[in-house]
Design brief:
This is NADH-quinone oxidoreductase subunit J. By secondary structure, the protein is mainly α. It has 9 helices and no strands. It starts with 7 loop residues before the first helix and ends in a 15-residue tail after the last helix.
C-alpha cells in the first residue's frame, strides 16, 4: 500500500505501519533491541521527516501522473529484470553445494551477553564502517530534505535578526503620563 496509495501522505502512513510490522517480526525473533531501535529511529525520525517533507513540498500531482504512462514500459522492464535477478540469486543459494555447510556454521558464543551487548560488540568492531556509512546516508537524506523544502518565495516577510538585536527599548516602549479620569489618545 506504500507504493500503491495515491495520496503521498497515506503512503508515508503505510510506510510507518510497515516499520511497525518489521519491529513486530524482530520481537518474534527475540531481538528486542533491534525492534525498539527500528521504532525509535525509523518511525520516530525518518518517517516523520518524510511526512513533513511530503506535506511541505508543493507537488503538482496532475503533472506527475501524466508522465507515469510514458515511463511505464521502462519501469516494467526494470521490475522484470530485478525479479529475475532475485529468483536467480535465491535459486543459486538454495541449490549451491556449500549452502548446507554455511547454514550450519557455528555462531560465536554469546552466553552471558544480552542482545544489546552482542549487537554493540558486532556493530562497533566488525561492521563499524558500514554503520558509519549508514549514518552518512541518513545525514545526506536529511540535508536533501532541507534543501528541497527551503526556497525563496515572493511576498513572504523574512525575519531580520540584525534589526531585532539592534532594537533599543526606547524604540519599542513609550511612556505616556495619563491624567486621572481621562483616556489616552493613541497616535
Amino acid at each position: 500500500m506504500t507504493i500503491l496509495a495515491r495520496n503521498p501522505v497515506h503512503s508515508v502512513l503505510w510506510l510507518v505501519l510497515a516499520f511497525f510490522n518489521a519491529a513486530g517480526l524482530f520481537l518474534l525473533l527475540g531481538a528486542e533491541f533491534l525492534a525498539m531501535i527500528l521504532v525509535i529511529v525509523y518511525v520516530g525520525a525518518v518517517a516523520v521527516l518524510f511526512l513533513f517533507v511530503v506535506m511541505m513540498l508543493d507537488i503538482d500531482f496532475a503533472e506527475l501522473r501524466a508522465g507515469f504512462a510514458k515511463y511505464l514500459p521502462f519501469g516494467l522492464l526494470l521490475a522484470f529484470i530485478l525479479l529475475t535477478e532475485l529468483v536467480l540469486i535465491g535459486g543459486a543459494w538454495t541449490f549451491a553445494d556449500f549452502a548446507p555447510a554455511v547454514k550450519a556454521a557455528p555462531v560465536t558464543a554469546t552466553e552471558g551477553l544480552s542482545n544489546t551487548q552482542a549487537l554493540g560488540g558486532l556493530i562497533y568492531t566488525r561492521y563499524v564502517y558500514i554503520f558509519q556509512g549508514a549514518g552518512m546516508v541518513l545525514l545526506v537524506a536529511m540535508i536533501g530534505a532541507i534543501v528541497l523544502t527551503h526556497r525563496q518565495r515572493p511576498g513572504v516577510r523574512r525575519q531580520n535578526i540584525a534589526a531585532q538585536v539592534a532594537r533599543q527599548p526606547s524604540d519599542a516602549v513609550s511612556l505616556v503620563k495619563v491624567e486621572s479620569g481621562k483616556g489616552v489618545d493613541v497616535p
